[in-house]
Design a protein that fits this description.
Elements (H helix, E strand, L loop, with lengths): L1 H11 L5 H21 L30 H15 L14
């Protein structure tokens, strides 16, 4: 891991830590979410096509569902909570002052 930090330093000139890089990633995800919300995407778009919830036909999983829709919706809500977003709307909270 330290070697990767050295690669980042040598290519960008940034003397950084893993914590700072993780915070950068978090900010990037939040900004992408805010951008998408501004462009009209909402929590209703955080789903999968219906075919993903249908039972398999044939093969070793014949008759089984690929993904349980209610479980997927719970997982999306958990993701919102873990990101610090509103669990009902998926909108990121404003950054702390």
């Amino acid at each position: 891991m330290e070697e990767l930090l050295e690669i980042i330093l040598s290519t960008t000139g940034w003397r950084t830590t893993w914590f700072e890089l993780m915070r950068l990633g978090e900010r990037s995800i939040n900004m992408a979410r805010v951008f998408n919300y501004r462009e009209g995407f909402t929590f209703k778009n955080d789903t999968l096509p219906e075919v993903f919830y249908h039972n398999f036909k044939g093969g070793p999983l014949d008759g089984q569902r690929a993904i349980n829709k209610k479980d997927f919706q719970k997982a999306v809500r958990l993701r919102y909570e873990l990101m610090g977003w509103n669990p009902d709307t998926g909108i990121p909270a404003p950054p702390p002052n």
